[in-house]
Amino acid sequence: MDQIVVSGDRAGACWRIQDCHSCTHSSHGCGWCPYSSTCVPTTNLLKPLTDTQICPLKAERYELRTKTLGCGCSTTTLLSIVVTIFATIAGLVLLGLISYVLLSINKMVGTGSWNGVEIEVKDDGTRDERQWRRSNAVTSFVRRSALKATKESEQEQVTERSRLLG
Fold it and tell me: Which has the closest alpha carbon to 132: 147, 117, 144, 111?
């Protein structure tokens, strides 16, 4: 039935189709308006953004379905997905930027570096070098749990290390 074209009239050919699948897969380039169960001539899922009269009912304008994504995805769904993806990317970029700024500020005015080399000079003049890394919440919890260390003893170690490094 979707192959019938009335004197080259695309709108007439689309209006004759009565179900979503036949409408979206017709050779006339039609779209499905679900609330009014109407097949209308359009090939673009984003057409409702520019054409306010695309569907018979104005309320279903953004519920248009086309062949591109089928009967299960409307313009509203597509736009929601696109906005969500871009918002997620923007949020991750913003978090990365905030982390970078905070780490830069920490190095300038905060507690300093997160890692370095500790040099211990022994009585006989030999030097003992070892890498150190400032602990975070996870490593502090693991260390306290495994070694049964208290927060005060860990603070004493950090203070002693600061005195050695100058």
Answer: 117
Tens digits of per-residue pLDDT, 87-137? 999 999 999 999 999 878 876 666 666 677 888 888 888 888 888 776 666
Q: Say how far apart CA 58 and CA 28 lie, in whole Å.
A: 23
Count Cβ atoms below 10 Å from residue 62 Cβ, excluding itself. 15
| Helix, strand counts (H, E) of the chain | 5, 4
Name the residue ranges covered by the structural domains of the chain. Answer: 1-111, 115-165
Report helix angle 137-147 to 151-165, nearest 10. Answer: 120
For 19-39, the pLDDT digits (tens) are: 999 999 998 889 999 999 999
CA distance 41 to 96: 45
Q: What whole-number distance in Å separates Cα of residue 133 and Cα of residue 77?
A: 47
